[in-house]
Amino acid sequence: MLRCTECYAKTNFADLTVLFFPAIVVPRPSTRRTRRRDNTLSYGHVRSCPPSLGAGSFRGVGGGSRVATPGKIRVGSWNVGTLTGKRIELVDIFLKCKVEIVCVQETRWKGQEAVDFNNYRLWYSGSRTARNGVGILLGPTHKDHVVDVGRFSDRIMSVTFIINEEKFTVISAYAPHVGLGEAEKESFWELLDEVVRGCPADHRLIIGGDLNGHIGAEVEGYRGAHGGFGYGVRNEEGRSILEFAIAHDLVVANSFFKKRDAQLATFHSGGHSTQIDFFLLRRGDLRNCKDCKVLPTWTCSSQHRLLVMELGTQGRVNRRASEVQPPRILWKNLNGEKAETFRANVVERMGAELKNAAFIDADQMWNNLASTIRGVAKESLGVAVGTSRAQNGCRESWWLNDEVQTKVALKQARFRELTSFRGGTLADRTSIENSYKEAKREAKIAVTRAKDKAYEDLYKRLDSKEGANDIYRIAKARERRRRDLDNIKYIKDEAGQSIVKEDKIRKRWEEYFSSLFDGERTRNGEPHVYDMAP
Question: What pTM was computed for the model?
Answer without folding.
Answer: 0.59
